[in-house]
Amino acid sequence: MAYETLLTEVDNAVAIITLNRPDALNAFNNQLMDELTEALDRFDNEATIGCIVITGSKKAFAAGADIKEMREQSYLDAYYTDFITRNWERAARMRKPVIAAVSGYALGGGCELAMMCDFILAAENAKFGQPEITIGVSPGAGGTQRLTRFAGKSKAMEMCLTGRMMDAEEAERCGLVSRIVPTDELLDEAKSVARKIASMPRATAMMTKEMVNAAYETTLSQGVLFERRLFHSLFATDDQKEGMEAFVEKREPHFNNR
Ligand code: HXC
After folding, report:
1. Which value, in Å, is the radius of gyration of the alpha carbons in the chain?
2. Cα 218 to Cα 231: distance, rounded to the nearest angstrom
3. Residues with Cβ < 8 Å from 233, sequence gap 6 or more?
4. How close is the Cα of 169 to the center of ligand 1, in Å?
5. Could you give the CA distance from residue 206 to residue 11 in angstroms, rounded to a whole number?
6. Taking CA 99 as the corner, what is the angle to CA 176 and CA 69, rounded to the nearest 5 degrees?
7. Theoretical Cys-Cys bridge with 83: which of 78, 118, 178, 240, CB 3.0 to 4.6 Å?
8. What does the alpha-carbon distance between residue 66 and residue 33 come to, in Å, rounded to a whole number?
C-alpha cells in the first residue's frame, strides 16, 4: 500500500511506520492522520506482525497538528467533525505493542502520539513539549492527561502552561521515555527491540500490554485481579507449555503463537 505522507516497511514480524512530511516537520494534516490510522489498522490486523515502530525524521518525530490547516477552523467545524480526535486515538487502541522512536521534535500532537504508544525510545536530540498554549489552544489529543500521568502534575502543569520543551535527559528522568539512545542508532535499536518483542509468544505479549495499561485505567485491586485472570488464561496456550518445557529441557523455545 502506497502512502503520500508515510513510509512503511515490514521486516519479518516488525512493521515500521515513518512519518514523512519533511517540509512541515511531519506536522499532522488530515491526510497524514487518515493514512496513519489506515496503516495502524492494517498492521494491527495483520497476523504476521508482532510489533510496530512509529518514527519520524532525525530533525522531527512530529511538530504537532498542522497549524496551517487548523488556523481557519471554527468551533462548530471542530465540534461537528470531532476535529482530529475523530481518528486520533487509533494509536492508543492498538492491540499489538507499539514503540515510538523519537528523534528531534515531538511537540503538541507529536508528543501526544508518542505518549499513545506503549513506550518511547528517545534519541539524544529528542525534545518533547506541549506548546499549544503559545498558539492559543490547549493539548487536544490527551496531552494534559497522559503527560500528567507519566511525568507528574507539577512538570505537566509547567510544560502545558509555558509551552517549554524538555530534552531527552529530562524526559528520561521524569519517566516519559524508557531510555535514551545515540541519535544515529535510534532506528536500529528500535527495530532490534521490536524484533525481540515480536519473537515473544504473541498472545502473552498482547495480554501483558493490556495488563500494564490497566494500571492507568483502574484501581490497584481491580488491576491486580485483571492481571491474575489473564495470567491464568495463558495456561491455556501452547506457548506456555512450550516455553516452560524448553526451559526445563535447556533449549530455545519454538513458539507458534497458539
Ligand atoms: C504546520 C509546521 C509546523 C506545524 C513546523 N512547520 N511545525 N507547519 N504545522 N505544527 C513548518 C514550518 O512552517 C516551516 O515551513 C517548516 O515546517 C520548518 O519549520 P521551521 O519553523 O522553519 O523550523 P525551525 O526553525 O527549526 O523550528 C522548529 C519548531 C517550529 C521549533 C518545531 O517549527 C515550531 O515551533 N513548530 C510549531 C510547533 C507547535 O506549536 N506545535 C503544536 C501544534 S498544535 P515553511 O513553509 O515556513 O518552510 C497541536 C495541537 C494538537 O499539535 C491538538 C490535538 C491533536
Report:
1. 19
2. 17
3. 207
4. 23
5. 19
6. 80
7. 78
8. 10
Helix pair 143-151, 109-116: axis angle to 10 deg: 60
CA distance 59 to 73: 28
- Helix and strand element counts for the chain (H, E): 12, 10
Q: For residue range 52-106, list pLDDT tens digits in order.
A: 999 999 999 999 999 999 999 999 988 998 887 767 889 999 999 999 999 999 9
Kindly state the cell numbers that stand for 247: 526451559
- From 32, 67, 146, the mutation candidate for ligand 1 (largest count of ligand atoms within 8 A of CB) is 67
Ligand 1 contact, 68 CB (< 6 A) = yes
Model confidence pLDDT, tens digit, residues 36-46: 999 999 999 99
- Provide the whole-model pTM: 0.97
Where in the chain does DSSP place strands (E)?
Answer: 6-11, 14-19, 51-55, 60-62, 98-102, 105-107, 119-123, 127-129, 165-167, 179-181
Strand bridging mode 98-102 / 105-107: unpaired
* 3-state secondary structure (DSSP) of residue 52: strand
Contacts of 158 (CB under 8 A, 6+ apart): 164
SS (H, E, C) 192-229: HHHHHHHCCCHHHHHHHHHHHHHHHHCCHHHHHHHHHH
